[in-house]
Amino acid sequence: KGHENKQLVWPKHSVNLPLQTIFYGAPGTGKSHEIDGKTNDDNSIRTTFHPDTDYATFVGAYKPMMDAVEEYALDATGKTHQVVYPNDKKSIVYKYEPQVFLKAYVEAWKRYLNKQEGEEDNYYLVIEEINRGNCAQIFGDLFQLLDRENDGYSSYAISPESAITKYLAEDAQSADGTKFSDLEFSDVTKKRGDVEKIIATAGDLKAGKRLVLPPNLHIWATMNTSDQSLFPIDSAFKRRWDWKYMPIKYDNNDWKIVLGDMEYSWTAFQKEINKRIYDATNSEDKQMGDWFVRAEANKISESLLLNKIVFYLWNDVFKDED
Question: pTM for the complete prediction?
Answer without folding.
Answer: 0.83
